[in-house]
Each structure stands twice: as structure tokens, then as C-alpha cells.
Design a protein that fits this description.
The chain has a six-stranded antiparallel beta sheet. The protein has a three-stranded antiparallel beta sheet with strand order 7-8-9. The longest helix is centred in the first third of the chain and has 24 residues, at 3-26. The chain starts with a helix and ends in a 13-residue tail after the last helix. The protein contains 13 helices and nine strands. Mean pLDDT is 85; it is low at 31-40 and 98-107. It has 411 residues and is α+β, with helices and mostly antiparallel strands.
């Protein structure tokens, strides 16, 4: 029984709301500069352990929770909560014989003004916002007929948001039309353990079209990396799963187009699952990808006689993510957005941090494998299968290395 933990999550949510309100009154920064509220992860991590998952997921969830709370609560309160959570690591695991769906804790976040008062979109009832980015806002929802049943299956519903990135090259009407066209591509998304399950889309939903996917329960890869307790072998296993999911998508002619750590959820604390298919489709769209992971063609690189396709964009992003996961350093970083885009456009496989990695003889094969996936011309890049095979071949020589891999000093 983990209801006391859910009560703790509710109390922490109330405390963080109070602190957020106080900071908005007393802090000179605008409200949108303050860190967003985290979604509850502790109870789902405990639930996963009770269902037979490895306890590593719980360790990462507790560490992540402390880091999240440290940004939102006074230090004394953070210490009190941390001391209350420490016994979780020593409690015996007694699994329940009744396999019921975990009850999710509603997090009272502001809902967008455009959402109808009845909180319905298409055939779904909005429980709470989950996050935003990649051209859309994501909500936790359940079917309308289950709106009063907290134990019913929950889903991740995404609606397109016409933001500044898209406005640079598309009218709002063009943006929504692209969303409608590409949503149909997800009908061909294969069932795969490393991909969130596609549920449905409704292009006629009002006030905006919607895309509905499985809500994957687990720890976000981004949080796991922030927790700072991981082994190189675990990183390689996660990358293998991500690339396996991309193989399946690319085999169906579909690209994810926003591969990054925050779009990978570790189901049960172990199995990596690609989520957020709001940008996925059969063609590259303006505004797709995220700055540190965006391939040159995403930023407008024109190559004579070549029409860019999504799979090489995903492989490029996966290589950027692999470097970050293994070293904790961004592969592409700079003082401004334009500086980072310039690095993407001109590095041709060998950005400076990767050159440094190659100076270590034991890590040179890894640097070569990543460089092959980072070539400026998409046709010269590795495929997801080739990158996956290359990383697998290096697992034996890398697994004993301490994490994170250390970059040699600049020459």
C-alpha cells in the first residue's frame, strides 16, 4: 500500500504551489522564468518495484525528487522530505497479488485559457497538463466515459501549439495543415517495446486537433541523468533500446524528429521508450528538433540534388544524445542560438568535444562511431541500424569505464 506516499506527493505539490506564489510576489523574475512544477514520479517508481522492476528506478526517482524540490522549496523542508524518503531504500519489497493500475495523483497546474470549461478534447477528459514543447502541449487524459474513474487507463494527448519557431517559416494555417497531414503517418507506427503505443488522432477536434498516445509510466531519462548515478553499461543498454525503436520507425518510413533525453521514458526504471510523437512523420518540418540535437538540414542547410528525409535527422540527434549521456556534456553548445546552429552547420562530424574524446585511444572507436552519425550530408551518415551495431561492438571495451567518460583536455 503506497497511499501515504501519494499523500506526501499531494502535500509537496501544495507546498510548491505556495512557494511559487511567494516567489512570484517577491522575485523580480517574470513568472515564466521560474522552474515548472514536476509531475509525480515517486509513487509510480514504487509501484514499478512492487510489480517486479529493478530498484534502480526507485533510487533514481528519489534522487531526482530531491533535486527537483531543491529548486522549489526552502532547504530545511528539502532536508525533512529527504530524511522521510531514505527508508524507502531499505523497506522489504512485498508485491501485491492484485495487479491494478496505479492511481495517479492529480497535479493542479494552470490549464490553458483555450481549453473548454468541461475539460474535454475530442473524446477525452483532461486530467492535468503534462508538459509542453516540440510544437505542442501534452495533457494527461482519460476517455470521457471514464472521467470520474481515477483507476481507468490514462493517455498522453498532444495538441499543436503555433509558437515562435514555427512562425518563422509557416503561417498558423500551414502549421495546422502539416500537423493534420503527418498525424495520418502514425497509422503505420509499428508495435514495439521501445515505442509508445499510438492510440488515435482526431483532426476535427475542437478547438484544436489532437494526437493521443500511450501514457508511459516511468522515470524520464533526463531525470535519471540528472540524478548522477548510472553505469556506462546501463547507458549503452538504453541507447540500444532507443536505436531499436528508431529502427522500427524508420522501417515504416516515419521519423521521430525530436529525439532527446526528455522524450525517453524508462518503463519500470529500465526499458527505454520513445514518447512524444507530435513532430513525427514522413517529412522534415520547420521547427522540428531541439537546438542541441538538430541536424544541419533542420536549420535550413540546402544540398544540391538532395531532398532531406527524417531518418538521418533522428540518427544525428541520437548521436548527440549518446555523447551527452556518456560524458554529461552537450556536444553542441554556444553563447547563443545562432552560435549553436552554426556549429551544427559547419562541424561535419567532428565538433570540438568529439575531437577531444578521440584523443583518448580507448575512446577513439566510440568517437569514430559517433562522427559517422554526425556527418553534415545526411546521405553520408550511419543508419540507426549501423550506429546501433557500432555501439554494441564497443560495449565490451567500454563497460568497465567509470561514468561519465572523461574528456581529455583541449590541445
Amino acid at each position: 500500500e503506497i497511499s501515504p506516499l501519494r499523500e506526501l506527493e499531494r502535500a509537496l505539490d501544495a507546498l510548491t504551489q505556495l512557494c511559487l506564489g511567494a516567489r512570484q510576489r517577491l522575485d523580480d523574475r517574470p513568472a515564466d522564468a521560474l522552474p515548472p512544477m514536476p509531475a509525480p514520479t515517486l509513487s509510480s517508481a514504487v509501484d514499478a518495484v512492487l510489480r517486479g522492476a529493478d530498484t534502480d528506478g526507485l533510487v533514481f526517482a528519489v534522487a531526482s525528487a530531491r533535486e527537483e524540490l531543491a529548486m522549489r522549496l526552502p532547504p530545511l523542508l528539502v532536508d525533512i522530505v529527504a530524511s522521510a524518503l531514505e527508508p524507502l531504500m531499505t523497506l522489504p519489497v512485498v508485491a501485491s497479488n492484485t495487479q491494478t493500475a496505479p492511481t495517479r495523483v492529480p497535479v493542479e497546474k494552470p490549464l490553458p485559457a483555450w481549453l473548454p470549461r468541461r475539460r474535454t478534447l475530442g473524446g477525452f477528459y483532461v486530467v492535468r497538463p503534462l508538459g509542453s514543447g516540440a510544437g505542442g502541449t501534452v495533457f494527461v487524459v482519460r476517455r470521457i466515459e471514464d472521467r470520474h474513474n481515477e483507476k481507468a487507463e490514462h493517455f498522453a494527448l498532444k495538441v499543436p501549439d503555433y509558437d515562435g519557431n514555427a512562425a518563422r517559416s509557416l503561417s498558423e494555417e500551414q502549421f495546422l495543415q502539416l500537423f493534420r497531414e503527418e498525424a495520418t503517418a502514425l497509422l503505420g507506427l509499428p508495435a514495439h517495446p521501445n515505442l509508445a503505443r499510438f492510440v488515435t488522432f482526431d483532426l476535427a477536434a475542437r478547438p484544436k486537433p489532437i494526437l493521443v498516445m500511450e501514457l508511459v509510466e516511468g522515470l524520464a531519462l533526463e531525470r535519471m541523468l540528472q540524478a548522477g548515478k548510472i553505469a556506462v553499461q546501463t547507458v549503452l543498454e538504453i541507447l540500444d533500446g532507443v536505436l531499436a525503436g528508431l529502427e522500427a520507425m524508420h522501417g515504416a518510413g516515419i521519423g521521430h524528429l525530436d529525439v532527446k533525453p526528455s522524450n525517453v521514458i524508462l518503463r519500470g526504471g529500465r526499458t527505454p521508450v520513445l514518447v512524444d510523437f507530435g513532430l513525427s512523420g514522413r517529412q522534415i518540418r520547420p521547427g522540428c528538433a531541439t537546438l542541441p540535437y538538430g541536424a544541419p538540414e533542420v536549420w535550413g542547410l540546402h544540398l544540391e540534388g538532395y531532398s532531406p528525409t527524417p531518418p538521418p535527422v533522428d540518427v544525428y540527434a541520437a548521436a548527440c544524445m549518446a555523447f551527452e549521456m556518456l560524458t554529461t556534456h552537450d556536444l553542441f553548445d554556444g553563447p547563443s542560438e545562432m552560435a549553436i546552429i552554426s556549429l551544427h552547420l559547419h562541424s561535419d562530424g567532428w565538433p570540438e568535444p568529439l575531437q577531444r574524446l578521440r584523443r583518448d585511444p580507448g575512446l577513439a572507436p566510440l568517437a569514430d562511431a559517433l562522427a559517422s552519425a554526425l556527418r553534415r550530408h545526411p546521405a553520408q551518415r550511419s543508419t540507426a541500424t549501423q550506429l546501433r551495431r557500432a555501439l554494441r561492438s564497443l560495449a565490451g571495451s567500454l563497460r568497465e569505464r567509470p561514468w561519465p567518460l572523461r574528456l581529455p583536455s583541449a590541445a
